[in-house]
Structures are given as C-alpha cells and as structure tokens.
Amino acid sequence: MARLMGLTGNEAIAYAVKQCNVDVVAAYPITPQTIMVEVISEYVHNGEINAEFICVESEHSAMSACVGASLTGARVFTATASQGLALMHEMLYIASGLRCPIVMGVANRALSAPINIHGDHSDMMGSRDCGWIQIYAENAQEAYDWIIQAFKIAEDPRVLLPVSVNIDGFILSHSMEGVSVLDDEDVLSFLPPRKPVITVDPDKPITVGALCLPDYYFEIKFQQIQALKEAYNVIREVNREYEKLTGRRYDFVDSYAMDDADAAIVCLGSTAGTAKAVARWLRSEGKKVGVVKPWVYRPFPEEELIKALGDVKALAVLDKACSFGAPFNALCSDIIATLYRYGKDIKVFNCLYGLGGRDITPNDLKAIFNDALEIAKTGIVKEYMKFIGVRE
Amino acid sequence: MVRLHDLPVEELFTSGHRLCAGCGAGIIMRMTMKALRGPTIVVNATGCVEVSSTIYPYTSWKVSWVHVAFENAAAVASGIEAAYKAMRRRGAWDKHVDVIAIAGDGGTFDIGIQALSGALERGHDFLYICYDNEAYMNTGIQRSGATPHGAATTTSPAGKKIPGKPEFKKDLIGICAAHGIEYAATASPAYWSDYITKVRKGLEVNGPAVIHVFSPCPLGMRHDSSKSIEIARLAVQTRYWPVYEVERGKYKLNIKVPQPKPLIEFLKMQERFRHLFQPEFQHELEALQRWVDDNWRRITALCGETT
C-alpha cells in the first residue's frame, strides 16, 4: 500500500535510494544536495540499509569510487550539485564510456564565479554531452518516482548507462511536499537486485578501460550512441511498468493544455509547475496557451516533442543556464534543431531566466505567454533572446 | 623472505606488452603478480604501464584489471573494495578479493595524492603500489614531485642558469605513514625477494598498505637499457634509496648499507645527471649528496639504526 510522506526533494531522493537497495554510495557534501547524503548516512548508521557509504574526499573521487564499485556489479548511487558536478566532469564521461549504470541525484545549482549557492541549470547543462541519461523532475514526487525508474533504466542490459535525476536547488531540494511512496516490497518487485552482464569478477579476469587508439575508439563511442538510442525503448517500457504499479504516468515529455494551444512555454523542472498554473489562469481568460516539459533531456525526445507541440504557432523556450556566445541557450538550440529536422515552421524565441536562483514569477510567465501569443498572431519574432528579470 | 622456488611459474603479467626494453616497471609488474594469494583486481592509473600493457584489443593482464583515469586509482580501488564488502553482506559474493592500485610517481606524488590520502584515511583494505621512475616518463619526461634535485627533465632542463630541478623529492612514505596505516614500505626491483615479500605483506594487512618502489627508466633517466637492475641496486647501495618498512608506525631498515658506494657511481650511469658534473655545478652535486646523507640519517634514526 502506498503511503503519503512529507518529504523535501532531497529526502524524497534519499528515501527512494533506500528502497532501491543500493550497495555503494560514494558522495561528498555540497549545498543544496547535502541533505541527500546526510539522510543516506543516517540510514547506513542506523542499519536500515546494507549499503557501504564511502565518505570520499572530493566529488572527483566520489564518481571514481562509483565507477569502481559499479564495475563489480554493485548497485551504485551518488549525489552532487554545482561545483561538485563540475569537478566530476572528467569522470562523468568515463562512467558512461565504461558503461556503468550509476544513478546520481543532482540538486541543480549555479556555477561560480561569482559563487552562488542557489538554483539554476548551469551545472548539468555544462555536462550535457557526457553520455548520461538526464532527467529533470518538476517536484519531489517526480524525483522519487524517477530515481526508482532510473536504476531500472540504467541497469537494463540494452542500456548500461548512467542516469542523472535533476531537481531544482532549494526550490525542490529544500521544499517539503506530500510524496506518495511505495512499500519496500513493491519497489523490490519492480526493481530486483542488479543482474550485471559483465563485471571485473576476479575469477573470470577481464581488462576494463584499455587504451583505444584511432582503430577502435570511434566504434566504442558509436556503441554508446546506439545505447542511448536503445534507452529510448527501455525508458518507455519502464515508464509503462511503473504506471501499472503506481498509476502515475511518466513519459519523455509532459504536456499541459496543448491540444488546441496557439502558444506554449517549453521549460525544464519546477518552473513547469508555475507555468502550468499561469496557463490555467490565462486559459480562463480565453487565451490558448500550454506548457511542454521534457522529463527526459538526454536522449533528447524529438519525436515526442513534435507530437506534444501539435499545431502550436509560437514557442517560448526557457533556459535556466547560459550557453555563453552561442546563438541560443541549450534547451532552445535542441528545440530549434528538432523543429528544423521535422520541417516544422513554429516561431521560437529563447528566454534566459533564473540564473543564480533569481525568481521567475507568475507575472513574468504571463508576460512571456502574452509575447508568445502575439508572435502566434503576427508571425513576427522581434526579440529572439529575452533576459527575464535581469537589471540591464 | 620469499625464495626463488616459492614463486609461482605462471605469469599473470605476460609478455607482448609494449614497455621499453629495460623498463623497470615491467619487471616490477611481473614480480608483483608473483606475490598474489587469491582473487585479485588490479586498478591501474593512467601511465606507462597502463598505456603499454592494454592496447585494445590486447592485454598483458591475466588478472582482472581496471583503468579509469590518472589521479584516482586509490578512489577507484576504494569503490571496488566497498562494493565487495556490501555484496558479501547481502550474499551476492562469497570470497575475499585483494585490490591492488598501481600508479606511477606522477599519479601518486602529484595529481593522485588527494585520492590516495582520502583512501588511506578511510582505511580501505587495499594495497597501493607506486612505481617511481622519478618523472612523468609517459608524457615525455617532465619533472614531478618525485624527481630528485638536479635531475634534468623536459620541464626542468639542464639550463645554463638553472641546472635541472631545483627542488627536492617528497617523502611519500612519511606522508603515507602519517595516516596511521598499518604497512608502508620502500623497495627496489634489484632486491626482488624483499619486494615480493613486501607485496605479499601489503596484501595480508587488513587495511591500506603502500609500497614505494624505485623503477629505472632507460628513456627518461637516460641510461643503458641493459643496466636497469644494476642502477636499481646502486640506488640502494649508495644510500640514495633506503629500503625500509613502517609497520604500525615502527620503522625498520630492511637493507643495511654499512659501506655505501659513492653516489656518483649511481649518478654517472644516468644522463639526466650529466650536467651536474660540469665544474660550475659542483655545488648542485654537493647539494644532492647532502640530501642523500640527511635522508639516510633521518630514516636510519627512525629505524633505530646507528650509522
């Protein structure tokens, strides 16, 4: 029987990790993720889980230890944010390159300088090409649900790739919500112990991490590309199986009021919650607006996005991380590339918002919707890049 | 001390690797594999041994072997050790697994010192072996924290003004022993029985152990490739490389050198020290000699020896 618990985003992730029966957690404290590792440490010290908690001396070593542990066939979790993720950067590529199904909780936070502890997506967006499956949750419930699904996706022999589950720093990591949690037995039946395909079993010696020169490197990277494609099918299967268990339906893309929408906002994470509320409010005034939220950012769900966008005429794509010097920020670039590929003539503008935790208010979102509606009517984009709430 | 006929005939580090002729590290790897006592996983930091022994799709290793990156062999070993602990507890694994991390001096003294310190402090049950060829030989002979005073490398060249490396070598075993680990030792491949015995001892210790072994490098130290073991022996016999161990904080000198050979016999065989023999750099030669004397006095005093 499912129960309702009052949990912050961090606690929801830690609770899910506990129910997933992990073997090894190697992590280092960093705001706003710290509570995840504190709660997991409590589980370990109270004998509530079997896991070995490695209190490493840096995030670089956290991911290194995770890779080592994962190669033995163990189930492995870590968590980080911001500078910690940046310090891990080298190891993120190795974790995916060595096909380690590690799951990582990220409480997204701005990158220095200037130092700032609040939420934006600079950390994960800075590592978006690292070969990981990347998921953004809108609230604590989604964070809990995605962690459980993430292990099943990652460890599937067709995938064998690491997964990051992202929650907005402070907005989600530190806000308490009612979270419907599963019984331990239900999680266990959904996610049995890991069945590794190849391990560094000392009884059956193998060499892992050999030097690959130009004659082999490309093929091995190509296999990774194919694994991410394969992950597409696995994510869908896992989402459907989880829906059967919980009644909660997950997919690549979450869409709200898109059936007859003229204009829409595309954004990641918690901002979608506010955007949905504003859309509802504008709908009551007769304005046809909707919201599209990619749950899965990598692999980028092109087909599902096109489907979700339907006949919308104008899009405001919201980015919470800056791609300095680029024509558009990351999410917007991906959306535009997808529209181009599918031959869709939808007008798009990009809004950079929320850097360093700058709040985005319902009024900000209302103005963005109205701008998008205006473009939907006229077909003219006057400003391709807007900066929301910044003093120029 | 292990005897020759005690050693297994089986080679777990096999021929066919692409290490240079006369490479000390290759000899050390072969000896290391002779000391194993059961299921073993080797974690190899990026470096000469790694790039030369596992060029895909080939491998010289008949034990399970993992390479992850340069600076993190100790952290990767931590993860492997912890994983087996957890899997043993839940009944998914039933044997003890020896974990050996292997790194060069760059991967240990410099970029890997943080990960090593962390792993030693946390007390993981693993053996860390640093094969020390006293510079970044894999990238083409750049100075490291292990390069001795005066040695010429490509980033501490024998210039007209600055003749080689101005700084002195770090005390790795002192740093490791200060973590309160149960076993730390130095070794030289010229004293194979001492080294293999120490590897076994390091594996048997319940907790972290560190072995710091001198590794001749014909290319980087610039010596005759047929003289590697001779140089490794001279390093000990000139007191340049004291061979000792630290067991639970207690120092013990394993190879006594009552009548040391002149340091120049060791230096003269290696081109990296050639410039020190120019008259204007006499003082640098003396400085290196002083360091050797002081280091010997310090180590032997810690060992309770009188010289």
What does this structure look like?
The complex is a heterodimer of chains A (392) and B (307). Chain A has 12 helices and 16 strands. Chain A is of the alpha/beta class and 392 residues long. Chain A folds into 2 domains: 3-246, Rossmann fold, CATH 3.40.50.970; 253-387, Rossmann fold, CATH 3.40.50.920. In chain A, the strands form 3 sheets. In chain A, strands 3-2-4-5-7-6-13 form a 7-stranded mixed β-sheet, with helices on both faces. In chain A, strands 10-12-11-14-15-16 form a 6-stranded mixed β-sheet, sandwiched between helices. Chain A has a two-stranded antiparallel sheet with strand order 1-8. In chain A, β6 (133-136), α6 (140-155) and β7 (163-168) form a beta-alpha-beta unit. The longest helix of chain A is centred in the middle third of the chain and has 30 residues, at 217-246. The radius of gyration of chain A is 21 Å and the shape is globular. Chain A starts with a strand and ends in a 5-residue tail after the last strand. Chain B has 307 residues and is of the alpha/beta class. Chain B has one domain (4-302): Thiamin diphosphate (ThDP)-binding fold, Pyr/PP domains (Rossmann fold, 3-Layer(aba) Sandwich), CATH 3.40.50. In chain B, strands 2-1-3-4-6-5-7-8 form an 8-stranded mixed β-sheet, with helices on both faces. The model of chain B has no long low-confidence stretch (mean pLDDT 97). β9 of chain A pairs parallel with β2 (64-67) of chain B, so a sheet runs across the interface.
